[in-house]
RNA sequence: GCGGCCGUGGCGGAAUUGGCAGACGCGCUAGAUUUAGGAUCUAGUUCCUUAACGGAGUGGAGGUUCAAGUCCUCUCGGCCGCACCA
């Protein structure tokens, strides 16, 4: 199939000697690609470079650069690249300086995994793949400035990835700093050099707390001066502040692969994605980046971005900011309440009226978003990994607790949550004191409490939280209602119970029925129904019986209602009448308060007593930034014999990866307790560093794949700069990215990580915009067809025959199958290789087809059968200009002044194409090109004044064809910088328009009127029409609605 | 479970944002051209019914409106994200 164009390079499939001038796309595309390369047509100059014209507006248009995998480009990749190239070419013609670069994300796990499996070095496979990708990308005729190509695995690139890491290592986050950025933004919080912190400490302005934190208050209990702090403690103080720091965190440790895995790399069986090896949750010392410090700014700065709303929402959810309070629950065997305050059983120095919230020992710290429900906290739960578990567990419970802790360590987060299994947990034997009532409550451990969120411990309020309700029900813990539910909720709940949703609800219903005899009949009557309350029951409820009585019943007996009320309402039982409150000072009474009010009051009450304070929390975790892999950026850090870390100097960068023949991880038994042995550990010579007589070991970890892609858009600005990550002037001129196009699969991680790095650089004064990507656009996925048999099993394309249009059977069995849309995959044999399509139809056809498939952001199936339609478009455009018989210009081409119709068609097309391009509606822009060609084809005379502007409109979409036609029309330079044709609005207007006339909303006739006819004229013309008159017979006209230029609706009856 | 997106001919998809549903392309039908064709050109192509007229129609059911693919309520189906976040 592809031979025609390859074997006969002179003409595509042309064995017909008499036609000399057919559309020879291969030759044309090669010629123009060579021309652009030779003339450096798309070389982009930076401000300051000779010839740079910075008076022109700039446009930075960026693709998400690819990871060069072994299988090469598939048709999904170029979808976005074609779109950005079209926009880039359009913007150039509109007079912009366009920056449109391309590069490669070349570090990462797949290359390493492939290398391990095939026993070749990752550098070799990566280079091979890079060559393939470069060759493939060039086929499409993209107008990239290839001089700016970056490859993240090259030392000259990752030198600055390491440099940015050091910037973070040498910085801390001052969350009280208020400042104005270079872009004029008022910002709260700022990354500042660690040196500035040291200066504050040395001057004595700030001190050190007992927990080695920073204290700004002059008079704080336990505050120490910097000069009184030991060398080792000083280092600990600073290390605790760094944006890049080492910490012991719970990770997915896969001993068989010898590395830590990200959550995405672990399946819901708790096995590794690659190789299905067991994965264990265990604490390991890892490099962390303090992204949580940026939670607020990552949220609030989203508002000013031109991004798809769903993506913004996903980022907001990912950051997951919540507000509430932190509360201390003192342990019951350590603390008691005296008349004067809290008394510790053993440590008299702690026994003060008001405990220090920061340092109070032997207390469980919880985070809650609903402090107003504190009176309903009837037990507590610690995550199994919580630090206090061991200390508080009583002898009687120790065995059970330890068994539970071990069991839960073997389950990943996903495994814990995936199959909606029952809640599990174990009582520790310990009790803690509810600080608002003084009552002791039991402390449990359960894996429904996550160690990484909040404080890793909760106060459980079964009546106000469905998880706590479930747990309390299962383990028969007390449930006390503290928020009065709403009428709407209680009706819904009763409805759900009547519908018999679960056994527990049924028993609750018996209880309600016996207490409310007036409801019993109607409840019984509707009991078999599958859903909800009958109208009759509702009537009874809202009438005599009263929803209020039901609510009162719920408040007394909420456990029987089968579900927690998690909404907002009015506080009750806070405290409950039957509870003897034992607290320091005046008790807090919340009864009758609204949820908002109650939250404020209880938080203030706790704060006064040192037992609580308001708090903000994020779902976002600090970023685990190290991997135990070979193929990534080494950390520019050394460790001395005491384990203290020392950063390399900037002039020691890049720290290159040592060449290693054996880069495999060290596999070990599937035992949670083995320690990671990263491949770099075996580069013995590389690891050892001696400096000033001290010996150090290099850090053995490498950075995750995200690192390189966090800042590549900045390197494109100045890719060959050896001294800086990019020139300041270039950054100022080009940033931010005006349009960033890529797949929605990067909606959260890449885009969040990239924004985070950018903000750090912004805080430190290295970049001048607070956000990197002003406008984001997600292209859809290109899917493939597959076939489904009766049982719903997918059948691959190669096993199916089309018997008649859209009827398919399995070839060997004649079993009918239906065509469905599925992901492109090797197993379904529906992967399309762009090389083949380009060989057969050319790059211009390929570009046009992909853009014409549908809206850019929609997912849609590839259908090779549709491609020839776009090929025909190219051929027809070709024939508008070229005479196929002679290879000269078409005889229809003429220098006549264009007629009004032709001019109107041209200007309508200019308008449509231009407007659609601005909105990235490339499919309808191409439809406009079709319309123009359909109009022009039958014309015997085709004026240049119409054809030439059309060629310019075509240029962004099919640049090779357009360049060729432009040349043949007598121009001797590229059209890449020709001015985009201007629309003359007056010329787009029709003289006459057809207007539909409706009678009672149904079209009865069409009339033709002057385009500028007024309502009066249109109305009378419509009513004068014979068919309208017929439709109006025996009716009275009530109203005539005229929409100028569109329709008339006659309302009559 | 929670959140988001989307359902329009045989297929991919249009529809100035509330104003003629089905632009444009594919496929299909008929015709033209001595046409090697996967070429070109012309006409037709939502469905039902008819000689014509007509009727129905944007997943389904209601509603608002002179007018609904578009707005509202409920519902069914598909895709994506998150997933015990206290």
N- and C-termini, Cα separation: 65 Å
The CATH architecture of the domain at 321-481 and 597-618 is Alpha-Beta Complex
Q: Using the coordinates above, name the CATH class of the domain at 321-481 and 597-618.
A: Alpha Beta
**Low-pLDDT windows of residues:** 1-17
Work out the helix count. Answer: 35
* Largest sheet, strands/sense/barrel: 6 strands, mixed
State the CATH superfamily name of the domain at 321-481 and 597-618.
Valyl/Leucyl/Isoleucyl-tRNA synthetase, editing domain
- Which of globular, elongated, flat, extended, rod-shaped describes the shape? globular
* Average pLDDT: 87
Helical content, roughly? Answer: 25-40%
Using the coordinates shown, work out and report the CATH topology of the domain at 321-481 and 597-618: Isoleucyl-tRNA Synthetase, domain 2
Rg: 36 Å
Derived from helix and strand composition plus strand pairing, the structural class reads alpha+beta
């Amino acid at each position: 199939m592809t031979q025609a164009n390859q074997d006969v390079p002179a003409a595509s499939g042309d064995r017909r000697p008499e036609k000399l001038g057919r559309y020879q796309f291969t030759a044309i595309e090669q010629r123009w690609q060579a021309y652009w390369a030779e003339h450096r047509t798309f070389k982009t100059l930076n401000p300051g470079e000779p010839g740079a014209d910075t008076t022109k507006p700039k446009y930075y248009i960026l693709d998400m650069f690819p990871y060069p995998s072994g299988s090469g480009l598939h048709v999904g990749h170029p979808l976005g690249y074609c779109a950005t190239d079209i926009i880039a070419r359009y913007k150039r013609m509109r007079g912009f300086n366009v920056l449109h670069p391309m590069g490669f994300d070349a570090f990462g796990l797949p290359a390493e995994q492939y290398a391990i499996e095939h026993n070749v070095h990752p550098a070799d496979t990566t280079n091979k793949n890079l060559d393939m990708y470069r060759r493939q990308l060039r086929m499409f005729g993209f107008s990239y400035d290839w001089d700016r190509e970056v490859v993240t695995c090259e030392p000259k690139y990752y030198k600055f990835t390491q440099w940015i890491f050091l910037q973070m290592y040498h910085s801390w986050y001052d969350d009280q700093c208020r400042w104005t950025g270079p872009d004029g933004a008022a910002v709260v919080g700022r990354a500042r050099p660690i040196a500035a912190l040291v200066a504050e400490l040395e001057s004595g302005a700030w001190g050190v707390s007992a927990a080695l934190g920073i204290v700004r208050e002059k008079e704080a209990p336990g505050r120490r001066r910097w000069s009184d702090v030991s060398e080792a403690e000083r280092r600990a103080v600073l290390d605790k502040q760094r944006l890049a720091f080492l910490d012991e965190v719970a990770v997915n440790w896969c001993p068989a692969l010898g590395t830590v895995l990200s959550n995405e790399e672990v399946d819901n069986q708790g096995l590794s994605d690659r190789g299905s090896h067991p994965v264990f949750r265990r604490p390991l010392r890892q490099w962390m980046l303090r992204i949580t410090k940026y939670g607020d700014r990552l949220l609030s700065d989203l508002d000013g971005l031109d991004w798809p709303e769903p993506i913004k929402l996903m980022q907001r959810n990912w950051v997951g900011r919540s507000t509430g309070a932190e509360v201390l629950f003192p342990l019951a065997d350590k603390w008691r309440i005296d008349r004067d305050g809290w008394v510790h059983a053993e440590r008299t120095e702690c026994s003060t009226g008001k405990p220090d919230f920061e340092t109070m020992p032997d207390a469980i710290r919880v985070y809650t978003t609903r402090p107003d429900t504190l009176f309903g906290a009837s037990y507590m739960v610690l995550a199994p990994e919580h630090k206090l578990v061991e200390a508080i567990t009583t002898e009687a419970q120790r065995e059970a607790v330890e068994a539970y802790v071990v069991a839960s360590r073997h389950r990943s987060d996903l495994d814990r949550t995936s199959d909606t299994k029952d809640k599990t947990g174990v009582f520790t034997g310990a009790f803690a004191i509810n600080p608002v009532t003084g009552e002791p409550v039991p402390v449990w451990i359960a894996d429904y409490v996550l160690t990484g969120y909040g404080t890793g411990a909760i106060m459980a309020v079964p009546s106000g939280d469905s998880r706590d309700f479930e747990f309390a029900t299962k383990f028969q813990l007390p449930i006390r209602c503290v928020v009065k539910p709403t009428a709407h909720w209680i009706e819904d709940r009763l409805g759900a119970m009547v519908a018999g949703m679960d056994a527990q609800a049924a028993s609750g219903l018996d209880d309600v029925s016996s207490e409310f005899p007036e409801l019993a009949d109607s409840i019984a009557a509707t009991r078999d129904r599958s859903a909800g309350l009958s109208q009759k029951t509702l009537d009874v409820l809202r009438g005599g019986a009263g929803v209020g009585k039901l609510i009162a019943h719920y408040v007394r007996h909420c456990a029987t209602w089968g579900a927690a009320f998690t909404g907002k309402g009015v506080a009750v039982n806070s405290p409950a009448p039957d509870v003897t409150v034992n607290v320091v000072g005046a008790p807090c009474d919340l009864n009758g308060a609204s949820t908002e009010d109650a939250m404020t009051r209880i938080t203030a009450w706790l704060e006064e007593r040192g037992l609580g304070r308001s708090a903000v929390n994020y779902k976002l975790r600090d970023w685990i930034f190290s991997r135990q892999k070979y193929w990534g950026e080494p950390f520019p850090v050394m460790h001395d014999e005491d384990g203290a870390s020392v950063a390399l100097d900037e002039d020691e960068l890049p720290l290159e990866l040592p060449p290693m023949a054996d880069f495999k991880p060290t596999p070990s038994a599937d035992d949670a307790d083995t320690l990671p042995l990263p491949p770099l550990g075996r580069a013995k010579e590389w690891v050892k560093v001696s400096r000033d007589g001290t010996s150090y070991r290099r850090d053995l970890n490498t950075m995750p794949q995200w690192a390189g892609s966090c800042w590549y858009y900045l390197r494109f600005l100045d890719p060959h700069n050896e001294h800086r990550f990019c020139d300041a002037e270039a950054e100022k001129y080009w940033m931010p990215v005006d349009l960033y196009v890529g797949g929605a699969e990067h909606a959260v991680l890449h885009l969040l990580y990239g924004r985070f790095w950018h903000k750090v650089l912004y805080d430190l004064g290295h970049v001048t915009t607070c956000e990197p990507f002003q406008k984001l656009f997600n292209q859809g996925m290109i899917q493939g067809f597959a076939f489904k048999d009766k049982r719903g099993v997918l059948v691959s394309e190669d096993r199916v025959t089309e018997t008649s249009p859209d009827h398919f059977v399995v070839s060997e069995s004649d079993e009918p199958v239906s065509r469905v849309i599925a992901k492109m995959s090797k197993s379904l044999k529906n992967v399309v290789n762009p090389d083949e399509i380009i060989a057969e139809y050319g790059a211009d056809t390929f570009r046009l087809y992909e853009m014409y498939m549908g809206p850019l952001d929609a997912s849609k199936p590839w259908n090779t059968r549709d491609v020839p339609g776009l090929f025909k478009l190219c051929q027809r455009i070709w024939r508008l200009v070229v005479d196929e018989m002679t290879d000269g210009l078409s005889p229809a081409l003429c220098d006549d002044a264009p007629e009004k119709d032709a001019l109107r068609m041209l200007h309508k097309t200019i308008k449509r194409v231009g407007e659609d391009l601005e909105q990235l509606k490339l499919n309808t822009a191409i439809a406009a090109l079709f319309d123009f060609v359909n109009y022009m084809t039958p014309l015997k005379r085709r004026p240049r004044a119409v054809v030439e502007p059309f060629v310019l409109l075509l240029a962004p979409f099919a640049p090779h064809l357009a360049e060729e036609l432009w040349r043949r029309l007598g121009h001797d330079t590229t059209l890449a910088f020709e001015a985009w044709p201007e629309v003359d609005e007056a010329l787009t207007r029709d003289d006459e328009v057809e207007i539909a006339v409706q009678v009672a909303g149904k079209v009865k006739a069409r009339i033709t009127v002057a385009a500028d006819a007024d309502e009066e004229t249109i109305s009378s013309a419509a009513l004068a029409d014979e068919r309208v008159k017929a439709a109006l017979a025996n009716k009275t006209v009530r109203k005539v609605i005229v929409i100028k230029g569109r329709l008339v609706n006659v309302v009559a009856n």
